[in-house]
Amino acid sequence: MTEEQRWSRKRKRGRRHKQKKTLSSPDGATRTTTKSLHTSASDSAASNKSNPKSSFLDKMKARLLGGHFRMINEKLYTCTGDEALEYFKEDPALFNVYHAGYQEQMSHWPEQPNDIIIKWIKDHSPSLVVADFGSGDARLARSVKNKVFSIDLVSNDPSVIACDMSNTPLETSSIDVAVFCLSLMGINFPNFLKEAHRVLKSHGWLLIAEVKSRFDPSTGGADPNKFVKAICELGFSCQSKDFSNKMFLLFYFKKKEKLDSKKQIEWPELKPCLYKRR
Ligand SMILES: C[S@@+](CC[C@H](N)C(=O)[O-])C[C@H]1O[C@@H](n2cnc3c(N)ncnc32)[C@H](O)[C@@H]1O
């Protein structure tokens, strides 16, 4: 074995060891992190100048992370909420990988739907109680004065309730605003909306932001009118729609009546949002 091969093996062993390092999260669980993958990418920017090999390795690392993100993303769009909950229970570190990739994708969007929803909440009363279904890093809760229940599959923050959002611990008729910001991911998304209907007070708001391509019938996406019709049949009235953004659609509904569980609602299929390799 040449000196060069020995050196390369040593570096690979070191990196594997770093990736396996475990950290304690705020909820007390011990989990494997991918932190070293991210930090080492920035740490090595300086060494890239002197060592072209590390620039190549960083590219490979980024590619690996991107691939991992796309795999988790596809899983979330093609399974039910309870399957997604089990998936992350088995390996909570995947949640961090997903969110690192998601943030990277979102950094290319000219406008964030979360910002529009945050502005909407700020323009209304701070006394409104909000439930953020699929809250991610709970940025919404941190950005407004309102009481916000943040709900997601994994809780990396004590304020986030970890559960499948089709079955939350929220009390019936206790919420003024239910938010779904790019979070209607599971194939049983109608159950997420039924849960929102249960927890919302009468005349409570349902705000939905979803990826535009999921609603493009010319490429296999859902007809947005059928989506609105199904939600109205669930017991909401559509107050307004905003299709002006290039990347996402916004829907604003109000709860109007009790859910008739016997009613057969025809839900359109929402195609998965699969991200391209960059
Ligand atoms: C695309 S991210 C959006 C995060 C955040 N709303 C934002 O706009 O930045 C979707 C989030 O929904 C969560 N999610 C998907 N299905 C869920 C379910 N069944 N129950 C709870 N959270 C879910 C995912 O874990 C993820 O954090």
Note down, in words, how this protein is organized.
The protein is an alpha/beta fold and 278 residues long. It has a domain of 178 residues: Rossmann fold (3-Layer(aba) Sandwich). Helices cover 44% and strands 19% of the residues. It is built from nine helices and nine strands. Strands 5-4-3-6-7-9-8 form a seven-stranded mixed β-sheet. It has a two-stranded antiparallel ribbon with strand order 1-2. A hairpin with a 5-residue loop joins strand 1 and strand 2. Helix 2 runs antiparallel to helix 3 and helix 3 packs across helix 5. It starts with a helix and ends in a 23-residue tail after the last strand. The site of S-adenosylmethionine has 18 residues, from helix 4 and strand 4.
What is the oligomeric state here? single chain
Please give the CATH architecture of one domain: 3-Layer(aba) Sandwich
Largest sheet, strands/sense/barrel: 7 strands, mixed
Tell me the Rg in angstroms: 21 Å
Specify the CATH homologous superfamily of one domain. Answer: Vaccinia Virus protein VP39
The CATH class assignment of one domain is Alpha Beta
Name the helicity range: 40-55%
Family: Belongs to the methyltransferase superfamily. RRP8 family.
GO molecular function: methyltransferase activity
InterPro entries: RRP8, RRP8_N, SAM-dependent_MTases_sf
Keywords: Chromatin regulator, Methyltransferase, Nucleus, Repressor, rRNA processing, S-adenosyl-L-methionine, Transcription, Transcription regulation, Transferase
